[in-house]
Design a protein that fits this description.
It is a single chain. By secondary structure, this protein is an alpha/beta fold. Helix content is about 40%, strand content about 25%. The longest helix has 23 residues. The radius of gyration is 20 Å and the shape is globular. The N terminus is likely disordered. The structure holds N,N,N-trimethyl-histidine. The site of N,N,N-trimethyl-histidine has 11 residues, from strand 12.
């Protein structure tokens, strides 16, 4: 078990107050909203892992299929002695496929806000790759953070799988790519997973699974507010709603109040009318071309893109030219 340093304790305290601030701001806004990054407490991370195994949720399976087939090609983009920086590492299943194909990588820097997951996966990776420097960073990668000093001199490669980029508004996605480029440096490569525009029925099913795991994942956000911020949400009084908006090319997820009700959160009273929603997530979908254009606009040159056989999901390789 890794020792929690005083710095990590401070970071955790800062993250808690950010959670409180964001929840209060989101629930007092109109329409109400909550940032999707807060889905991933320990329970949420476990529920998301369960989502990735659902028959309707194709993204993870398709991305793993691409990695299985293309890892050797991808690995050729990694300079000798380079440091691989993963944004939102979660479980290390995907990076393991890259590490197995890329012995040139000297250091792995997983960046995640789930401290438990970060420590557990780092320990397992150190066991399986004794020559790899595993340097976890507990941080919210949507905000500026520092890379470990130990990798300052190395070439950097970014890894951002899972189509988490889809959680950003397109202008935020461009800003993220610019910041990631500035941090990784000119000439750095970025390997990024991007979910593709497709039939609305397939998309709707992926976010409305028959087993109800996505509903539980969505509702866990309210349970987390109850646990960590002293909220009194009645989970049975809210319903999961997810749908594809073809004009905006995004899945929207909401929690719908089943009745008129008042909820207390951190000493504040929050009113809901019957049918009022909390917008909890957007998951933007791109075409190969629309994503390449977004990347170019943020200073990155597309060098390759791969899809699974059904063209459900894509992985892009980009090189940073400078913004
Ligand atoms: C982790 C953001 C890629 O948008 O598909 C899965 C999260 N939400 N089911 C996605 C999610 C509902 C997921 N990302």
């Amino acid at each position: 078990m890794a020792v929690q340093t005083p710095a990590a304790v401070l970071d955790a305290a800062a993250a808690d107050s950010a959670f409180l601030r964001d929840v209060v701001a989101g629930l007092t806004a109109r329409p109400k909203r909550l940032p999707p990054k807060y889905f991933y407490d320990e329970t949420g991370a476990r529920l998301f892992e369960a989502i990735t195994a659902l028959p309707e949720y194709y993204p993870t399976r398709c991305e793993l299929a691409i990695l299985r087939e293309r890892a050797p090609e991808i690995a050729r983009l990694f300079p000798a002695g380079s440091a691989l920086v993963e944004f939102g590492s979660g479980s290390s299943r995907k990076v393991r496929m890259l590490l197995a194909a890329a012995p040139a990588i000297a250091a792995y820097v997983p960046v995640d806000i789930s401290f438990e997951m970060l420590m557990k996966e780092a320990d397992a990776l150190r066991r399986d790759h004794p020559r790899l420097a595993v340097l976890p960073v507990e941080a919210d990668f949507t905000r500026p953070f520092s890379l470990p000093a130990a990798v300052a001199g190395a070439a950097h490669v970014g890894f951002f799988p899972g189509s988490t980029i889809g959680n950003f508004e397109p202008h935020e996605a461009a800003a993220f790519l610019r910041h990631a480029g500035a941090m990784l440096g000119r000439g750095a490569a970025l390997i990024i997973g991007v979910d593709l525009v497709k039939d609305a029925g397939v998309l709707d099913a992926a976010y409305n699974d028959a087993a109800g795991v996505t509903a539980e994942f969505n509702l866990n956000l309210l349970a987390r507010i109850n646990r960590e911020l002293g909220g009194d949400f009645e989970l049975a009084s809210f319903a999961h709603r997810a749908f594809y908006d073809g004009a905006r090319r995004r899945i929207e997820m909401h929690l719908v109040s089943r009745k008129r009700q008042q909820v207390r959160v951190a000493g504040r009273a929050i009113e809901f009318y019957a049918g009022e929603t909390i917008h909890t997530e957007n998951s933007y979908k791109y075409t190969l071309e629309s994503f390449a254009a977004l990347a170019r606009g943020a200073g990155w040159s597309p060098v390759a893109a791969w899809t699974d056989a059904g063209a459900n999901f894509s992985i892009h390789a980009l090189v940073f030219e400078g913004a």
